[in-house]
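Aim 2 progress update. The chain analyzed this quarter is reproduced below.
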Amino acid sequence: MSRLPRSSRLASPVDTTTHGEYRVVRDPGDPRPLYRFAGRITEAEAGRYHVYAGWFCPWAQRITITIELAGLRDVVGVSYVDNARDGRGWAFRERYGPDPVNGFTLLRQAYEATEPGFDGHVSVPTLWDRATGRVLSNEYKTLGIDLATRFRSIAEPVIDTYPEALREEIEALDEWLGPAVNRGGDVDAAFAALDERLSTRRYLTGPSITQADVRLWVTLARYGAGLADHPHLWAYARDLYTVPAFRDTTDFSTFQTPNVLDWTAPAERPEGVTA
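Predicted structure tokens:
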């Protein structure tokens, strides 16, 4: 057993020769979803919840952006796994430091503590519940909604990203943009339609940032040079990057697609766009 203090434990380096490549072997007859834990936040308690995130992951960045916009920086903890993995899955290494909650070296240990013999997908973001000592959720969509809405009694949001009046529109946009953009469907057609939409409005649903913008932006940030071919969409993306919650949760060096765009270029919106 390691003699290091629990808070100092780090995983050994990535070693695919010994541990193989990461993969999830799913029994075709297993009806459980890929993202197996879908608990919901019901108690707004400061310090109770901790998010295990990854700088490289768009789904995790949705959550870290939402935490900032919801005013939860001092309410919900966040730490980061290493950017590379082998067959053991995501791990805690020197670059981002040890697991500050449990002293785990591998994120898999959080899943196994929740479901002994866990054989599913170990993913980020993962929400850990300190009160129960278990993973509450690795379902990023509902997790984002909960973080945006469930802490109003103890934290003042910087921006309400899931206002009740716009929820139907936000989810309708997600039904379109999820397959078309975020999961690599008909990107060219979607970008053209978005460019037209954003020629007359500042954000996707109007004058304020919502979860629709958070969900889209994390994919735009990882897209590449083709984004600049759509002037309104590109200006919109740069406009969001000026918001600290978006900028400060972004590390382009961790993305698979090299950043070849100037995200710091002035983001003046075309004439006629509403405030």
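The chain has two domains: 6-149, 164-254. The mean pLDDT is 93. These observations will guide the mutagenesis experiments scheduled for the next reporting period.
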